[in-house]
Amino acid sequence: MKNGVQDLQLTMAGHRLTVKRSGDLESLWSEMEDGFGNVERIPYWTEVWPSSVVLAEHLDGHRHLLQGKLCLEAGCGLGATAILASRFGARVVALDIEWPALHFARQSQSLNWVHSVYWVCMDWQNPAFKEQKFDFIWAGDVLYETRLAMSLSCLLDHCLAPDGRVWIADQERNVSGRAWKELLAQGYKSREISRRKVHWFSQKAGVRLVELSR
To answer: What is the Cβ-side half-sphere exposure of residue 126, based on CA atoms within 13 angstroms?
Structure first.
């Protein structure tokens, strides 16, 4: 740890990554104590979640589809899967509403010999992109609250190309079921690609990977 920054050494889909994050996680969480009702301030972005492992493996297995394609990661957090996809030849735009996450993600990309990810701080409900431009959109563990389904739907409606595909890796929680119902009610077709248990650092979680299309 140096200057309050921690380097995480990760192996995802057989690829080694170094990802930077805040080295003072206790202070980040303690800042929530005075206003914990504001759920949007919870620093979930400080972790690389088990769903990212499943997503990374899927991107690795489909790298032939990603090469040269314009891709969007929604809720990129520390940027691990965006960096991997860029290594595979994708043209990646990585989006998050938390600027500290993007600050660390930008630092991480140079450590991993990647310089082509375009990091964007933006609200999903007001995407400032040209319409229907992204061939692939993916996200890991973004449906942890029911209300997020509608904001994700806004993003997909605006950004996904007519024949594009969406990949969502989701940790199985009770609330996720309600969020999925809200999302699918917007008219997307879904196909479950996989469902399995993931052991990741101190976490053990069931993760499902779903593909959405229009």
So the answer is: 4
Range(s) of the domain holding residue 204:
5-213
Instruction: Find residue 138's DSSP bridge partners.
Output: 73, 167
Q: What is the pLDDT of residues 82-129, one digit of tens each?
A: 999 999 999 999 999 999 999 999 999 999 999 899 999 999 889 999
Does residue 108 contact residue 83 with C-beta atoms inside 8 Å? yes
Measured in degrees and rounded to the nearest 5, phi and psi for residue 110 equal -70, -30
CA gap 105, 166 in Å, rounded: 22
Rounded Cα gap, residues 207 and 54, in angstroms: 7
Q: Report the number of distinct structural domains present in the chain.
A: 1
The 3-state DSSP class for residue 125 equals coil
pLDDT in tens, 29-38: 555 555 444 5
Please state, in angstroms and as integers, the Cα–Cα distance from residue 94 to each residue in 17, 78, 156, following that order: 17, 10, 14
User: What are the distances in angstroms from CA 196 to CA 31, 82, 142?
Assistant: 35, 22, 18
The CATH number covering residue 168 comes to 3.40.50.150
